[in-house]
Design a protein that fits this description.
heterodimer; A: mainly beta; Ubiquitin-like (UB roll); six-stranded mixed β-sheet; B: alpha+beta; two-stranded antiparallel ribbon; 6 strands
Chain lengths: 94, 142
């Protein structure tokens, strides 16, 4: 990795796209930083979109799961980032 | 349930299927006309789901599994979520997952009632589609 975790300061343009709406809005991105934890942005999205319980929600970027407890850089994310975020699918069994 | 209420609930949810949302998910909406919501999850192995949303959201949608051309799946489903064997009530292949009417009416799951889920975050129509899509990708290795 070119930058050390926590030291990178490059900007990220991020959108969080959920079944309850899009954060910050359908036509724009929020500015974040590569060293910022993804969860900070997801929490802001939940607050704005009035989503109360995300304890069993999963996040993906370009169809790959990401770890919200890590930074954007820690997840290998930079530039324009569109996060798919929704409730975990659960399993079958019948 | 009064049809006007189901229709209003349906309209509220499908409004969230915006162009930005659909582009992010890689889905195509084939039909959105109450009570039908017909969506294709595009991929190398696409799945088309036709949701029958009468009684939404007192009841979860009935879900028909289709190929992208609208034909039925005759083979290629292997469970545990996407069942090749036939549902005892519909006689069709089905999704065995909370949020699909066929799950809650299956003899194995009749005690797992939709009423315990319907008001949770992420259990609206786009949220159910997200869960079906993610299960499909997982089961098919996409």
């Amino acid at each position: 990795m070119e930058h050390e975790e926590g030291k990178a300061r490059g900007p990220v343009a991020v959108a969080v796209i959920t079944p309850s709406g899009i954060y910050p809005n359908p036509d724009d991105y929020r500015r974040a930083y590569e060293a910022e934890t993804v969860k900070v942005v997801l929490d802001a999205a939940a607050d704005k979109l009035n989503i109360k319980d995300t304890s069993d929600w999963d996040a993906y970027v370009d169809n790959a799961p990401i770890d919200p407890s890590k930074s954007f850089l820690g997840n290998g994310l930079s530039g324009i980032v569109e996060i798919e975020w929704h409730k975990r699918e659960g399993g079958g069994g019948a | 349930m009064h049809e006007a209420l189901a229709r209003a609930n349906f309209a509220r949810d499908v409004e969230l299927l915006s162009p930005t949302f659909l582009k992010n998910r890689g889905w195509t909406v084939n039909c959105v006309e109450f009570p039908t919501l017909d969506v294709t999850f595009n991929s190398d192995n696409p799945l088309r789901v036709r949701l029958r949303c009468d009684e939404w959201n007192e009841l979860p949608p009935g879900v028909q599994l289709l190929k992208s051309d609208g034909s039925e799946w005759e083979s290629g489903l292997h469970g545990p979520v996407f069942h090749q064997d036939k549902h005892p009530l519909t006689g069709r292949t089905f999704i065995c997952m909370v949020g699909a009417r066929e799950y809650h009416t299956h003899t194995s799951h009749v005690t797992d009632q939709w009423v315990n889920y319907k008001d949770k975050d992420g259990m609206n129509l786009p949220g159910l589609l997200d869960r079906f899509n993610r299960a499909w990708r997982k089961e098919m290795g996409l």
